[in-house]
């Protein structure tokens, strides 16, 4: 996992060094995005590898999560993203990570593909949950550098030993663009 984070850091650093100066919009090459998402998911436990903000209770068990995502636009409308999160399952905790890409079709309709995983011995035992995520939505720019992005997400389980169920989520994202 350390190699994954180092590789993502190297991509961001390389992209930052090669950023072009000049006028830019929120989605132009060389810009950054920082976002927080809420997720309302289906499934017994929801999404156990969450890099967003959430709180819910199932059968007397309280589950909460906090996290965020950041991305660098390597070209106009295309950002490479990294997400980190912390999840608490009624006292047992896990750490989540996400690596992916987000493209804004017509600078207004974000679509994202990513790989999300989690670790936490108290929660997963010997298993390592991993999901391939697909997300689409709408970017409503309430200011030049602030967007609200409602959308739908599907998480396809990549680990049948942990779960073979996919998870559908309705999400509302809040993004700052620099």
Detailed description of the structure:
Residues about 5-25 have low confidence and may be disordered. With about 180 residues, the protein is mainly β. The chain has helices spanning about 1-15, 120-125, and strands spanning about 30-40, 55-60, 60-75, 80-90, 90-105, 110-120, 130-135, 140-145, 145-155, 165-175. Strands 1-3-4-5-6-7-9-10 form an eight-stranded antiparallel β-barrel. It starts with a helix and ends with a strand. Helix content is about 10%, strand content about 55%. It has two helices and ten strands; from the N terminus they run H-E-E-E-E-E-E-H-E-E-E-E. The protein has one domain (about 1-15, about 30-175): Porin, CATH 2.40.160.20. The longest helix has 16 residues, at about 1-15.
Q: What is the fold named in CATH at topology level?
A: Porin
Low-confidence stretches: 4-23
Distance from N terminus to C terminus (CA atoms, Å) equals 28 Å
Mean pLDDT: 81
Strand order of the largest sheet: 1-3-4-5-6-7-9-10
The number of helical runs is 2
Shape: elongated
Q: Report the C-alpha radius of gyration, rounded.
A: 16 Å
Q: How big a fraction of the residues is strand?
A: over 45%
N to C succession of SSEs: HEEEEEEHEEEE
Number of domains: 1
| Structural class assignment | mainly beta
Class in CATH?
Mainly Beta
Major beta sheet summary = 8 strands, antiparallel, barrel
> What's the quaternary structure here?
single chain
Helix content: 10-25%
CATH architecture label = Beta Barrel
The tally of strands reads: 10
């Amino acid at each position: 996992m350390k190699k994954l984070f180092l590789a993502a850091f190297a991509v961001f650093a390389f992209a930052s060094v090669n950023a072009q100066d000049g006028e830019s919009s929120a989605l132009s090459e060389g810009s950054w995005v920082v976002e927080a998402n809420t997720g309302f998911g289906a499934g017994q436990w929801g999404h156990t590898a969450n890099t967003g903000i959430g709180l819910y209770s199932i059968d007397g068990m309280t589950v909460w999560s906090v996290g965020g995502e950041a991305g660098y636009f390597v070209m106009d409308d295309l950002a490479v993203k990294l997400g980190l999160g912390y999840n608490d399952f009624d006292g047992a905790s896990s750490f989540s990570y996400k690596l992916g890409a987000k493209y804004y079709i017509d600078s207004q309709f974000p679509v994202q593909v990513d790989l999300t995983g989690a670790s936490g011995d108290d929660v997963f035992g010997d298993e390592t949950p991993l999901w391939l995520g697909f997300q689409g939505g709408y970017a409503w720019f309430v200011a030049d550098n602030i967007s609200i992005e409602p959308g739908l997400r599907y998480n396809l389980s990549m680990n049948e030993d942990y779960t073979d169920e996919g998870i559908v989520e309705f999400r509302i994202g809040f993004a700052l663009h620099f």
